## 1
Amino acid sequence: SVPSPYVRRIRIWAQQNSCKLELVSLDIFSEQDRPTMASKNPARKIPILVDGDLTLSDSNSILRYLLEKTGQPKLTWPQEHLLTTIN
Ligand SMILES: N[C@@H](CCC(=O)N[C@@H](CS)C(=O)NCC(=O)O)C(=O)O
């Protein structure tokens, strides 16, 4: 979803870090796309990251995964706190 701020956060991170994520855009409230979202995340929320056999949801978890996968430092606890406050 292009308007989702949680998705946007991951897209901005990917762009700034030259991480080629494929954006699969879903209209999450449409009859056509909602089952696709639900099949990947029973909580029915985006963003969802699919990396091979691994499926992750929640923008914080996805960011944590991408940081680790790209060998970048973890967020500090104050950064985690800021992100939670923004959420
Ligand atoms: N804590 C979640 C929140 C995700 C979230 O609320 N996403 C919204 C889109 S902006 C959503 O999927 N809403 C669908 C719904 O609530 O039915 C995260 O950080 O990823």
## 2
Amino acid sequence: MKTKGWLIYEEEHAKKNKAFIDWFLDEAKELHIKLDFILQDRISFGVQNNELVILLDEAPLIETPDFVIMRNIDPLFNEQLERMKIPCFNSHHVSAICNDKAKTHQYLAGKGIPMLDTYFTTADELLTGNLPLPFPFVIKTRTGRGGGDVFMVENTEQLEAIHDQLSNRFIILQPLARSLGKDLRVYVLGEEIVGAVLRSNQKSFKANYTLGGQAETYVLNEAELTVVNKIIQQFEFGLVGIDFLFDEDGSLLFNEIEDVVGCRTLCLTSDINIVKRYLEFILQKLATGEKSI
Ligand SMILES: Nc1ncnc2c1ncn2[C@@H]1O[C@H](COP(=O)(O)OP(=O)(O)O)[C@@H](O)[C@H]1O
Ligand SMILES: [Mg+2]
């Protein structure tokens, strides 16, 4: 019997990633996987008659998928799948931690992974005068992506403006890393490092590629491999991007982990078939029953 999987996206994200989705569907065919592309808004889930339930187009599932590739951020749904014994990539644990910058820093602290001091607060707290670090510093919302919710603050006027913009959002505060406009993304599949991309932007302190940055391939040295592997050991990853800033001596400072990682820069800088490798990885996990639920 063919392995059956779901590839789940939210509508806006799916429009922007049509080529990537088609790539998944093509590679799945090659690997004899029946992969269905499903928009999250066709799905309802919860409890019915005291049992966990997933509805597709308002009807209970006749057949559950053998696995789900979750390319939408909704850790509660990842958890529902896992509780219903449907392996989900990435796992609920990865999704719940990594889509929250405060939780990620909290989880990885004390594990020998260099990172900036990071304070967890709310935008409203900013104006109480209780600031745990001096200007200049960086404010980010806990759940922001793509650099849109990341701000550098140099004085009280800027702080007030950002407070107004963020109203009562949950945020983190960090000092400024020395290497502005430059960061490193390391692509990881399971326990394996598949590639690394140095991203830079001359015009902004934010190196996000989607904000108009540059990307080039990067080879990790021994010390960098050690740091990345320490992070890998703390999770059971499917496919993620682990992002780093650089300290003044050029060493890595952990920044964040992308659960629903975009692969554009990896594709631009290498000929790695990341989609094929991801599907093969999933098949292997299912075959060995290794995927812990
Ligand atoms: N503390 C910091 N110091 C200097 N630059 C930073 C700092 N935090 C983030 N940046 C820059 O801003 C970019 C976006 O921040 P990031 O934490 O990755 O948020 P997002 O999830 O929106 O990508 C990073 O890629 C990096 O270039
Ligand atoms: Mg980022």
